[in-house]
Amino acid sequence: MANPPPGLSDFGKEITNTSSRLRMLEERITNIRMKLQVTEQNMVTMHRNTSEEMLAVKSDMARMKNDITDVKNTIQLMAAELGNFAKSEELRTLQKYLSYWEPVKFVTEEQVEKIVERMKEE
Fold this sequence. Notes:
By secondary structure, the protein is mostly helical. It folds into 2 domains: 7-85; 86-122, no CATH class. The protein is 85% helix and 0% strand. It has 3 helices and no strands. The N and C termini lie far apart (167 Å).
């Protein structure tokens, strides 16, 4: 075999060098694509998880809103019932009348009948 012309040897080295660099670039692109695919899958998973969490938060908020409404209604009912209670001034008036009447000294019908019977016997 004859020696190749002088410029052809350099050209072969350049082709080999370019081919090697091209393979490295292709590997990098392949790695970048794989990383991009993993990143996309992670984003989809995160989006799904975030959506589920948001639904749970919305559900909790709706439940809390209902609970707050129930508490509010209960407080309104209690406030309405408080209006039916006697005021302290009314209680003082009642206490004053009770002290005048002295209901402790009242007698029952049965006691009156016994007293009448005793008086008849005497």
